[in-house]
Amino acid sequence: MSAVADPAYRCGTVAIVGRPNVGKSTLLNALVGQKVSITSRKPQTTRHRVTGVLTRPGAQYVFVDTPGFQSLHGGPLNRALNRAVRAVLDEVDAVLFVIEAGRFEDADRSVLRLLPQRVPVVLVANKSDRSGGPERMLPFLRTAAAAFEFAAVVPVSAARGRNLGELLKVLAPLLPAQPPLFDAEMLTDRSERFLAAEIVREKLFRLLGDEVPYGAAVTIDQFREEGRLRRIHAAIVVDKENHKAMVVGKGGAKLKAVASAARRDMEKLFGGKVFLEVWVKVRGGWTEDTTAMRRLGIEHA
Ligand code: GDP
Questions:
Q1: Which one of 99, 122, 235, 271 has the lowest number of neighbouring Cβ atoms within 10 Å?
Q2: 56 φ, ψ to 5°?
Q3: Hey, where are the domains in the chain?
Q4: What pLDDT shows up at residue 80?
């Protein structure tokens, strides 16, 4: 992928937040097309669940779920929930705070109070198609913009696909300069290749829980079909050398458990035998270091 070598390439995680009904799901779907989701039985494993990835020539936008906002329906938020939401938001690279153009309610303000100081927040005034023209929109945007130190303010219509290009344009420079985390080609649909990565990722979170290093990502380096056998090479990419040890575990036990569980799920899902190898790579060596430090061949039963 040529983007890997481009030092100006941007890639980062983006949380879409806002009170219910402002159009968050519509916006995500409009930006990404197909929604991606792998359900997980353990709530904390969804902490950094990727809900969609948009790959563009200059940037890759990785949209992540923010558990907790679903519970904003009515009633005061409890403190633990606030903390959980804040913890997630603190770890993303950018936040899209969605409101309805022309309306700024108490419920919006409750969400606003949860927004992190450290992370850039873009105010997205959605449903611009219903806001009654610029003479009403502009004063509204000015008032809303004063409520927080937003990195940018963008009116859009998610339903009509209006101004989404502008939104992506202001979002890109807020993301860190780094190569794409996901292989663009595998994200065009819910391909087996993509599902394979999600399965490895899900096992990683399920089996390591809080020990999953921040920033860990899964890539599929090889996906070959040989008759009914699928030969899959997956890499767990981490930021630091010591993170690698956390994923590998004592004597390779953790990595092996992740790989075995992932292989079983893949065989069920794909309906055939899977030969799965899972490697751990350190991101610093993304382009140069293709030799995995630890290699575990998982024999298929
Ligand atoms: P969420 O609860 O924030 O995820 O909101 P949804 O995406 O489910 O949207 C709530 C409602 O707003 C749905 O009926 C959408 O069709 C509608 N909606 C979303 N975006 C727009 C928009 O840009 N314009 C209009 N008119 N309606 C929209």
A1: 271
A2: -120, 165
A3: 10-174, 192-295
A4: 65
Q: Is 281 in the pocket of ligand 1 (CB under 6 A)?
A: no
Structural contact between residues 126 and 157, judged by C-beta atoms closer than 8 angstroms: yes
Task: Please indicate whether residue 23, judged by its CB atom, sits closer than 6 Å to ligand 1.
Answer: yes
pLDDT at 210 over 60: yes
Torsion from C-alpha of 123, 82, 19, 159, nearest 10 degrees: 60
CATH topology of domain 192-295: GMP Synthetase; Chain A, domain 3 (3.30.300)
Instruction: Please say whether the beta carbons of 177 and 7 come within 8 A.
Output: yes
Tokens encoding 239: 């930021």
pLDDT of residue 163: 94
- Residues 6+ away with beta carbon under 8 Å from 170: 122, 151, 152, 154
Of 21, 98, 137, which is best to mutate to test ligand 1, by the most ligand atoms within 8 angstroms of its C-beta? 21
| Tokens standing for residue 43 | 């709530």
CATH topology of domain 10-174: Rossmann fold (3.40.50)
Does the reported pTM lie above 0.70?
no
